[in-house]
Amino acid sequence: MKIRWIAIMLATWLAMAGLAKAQAPSPDMTLDLWPATRLADAPVSGPERVGKDGSARGAVTHVSQPRLEIYKPAHPNGSAVLVIGGGGYFRIQIGGAAKPIAQWLQATGTTAAVLYYRLPGDGWKPEAPFQDGQRAMRLLRAHAAELGVDPKRIGVIGLSAGANLAGIVATRPDFAFYAPLDEADALPARPDFVGMIYPVVSLRPPLNTTRSARELSKQPDAAEAYSVEAHVDAKTPPTFLAQAVDDPIVSVGHSLLMFSTLRKAGVPAEIHVFEKGGHSWGLGAPGSTVSAWPRLFAAWARSHGYLGATPEDTASKPAAADANGG
Question: What is the CATH number that goes with domain 2-315?
Answer without folding.
Answer: 3.40.50.1820
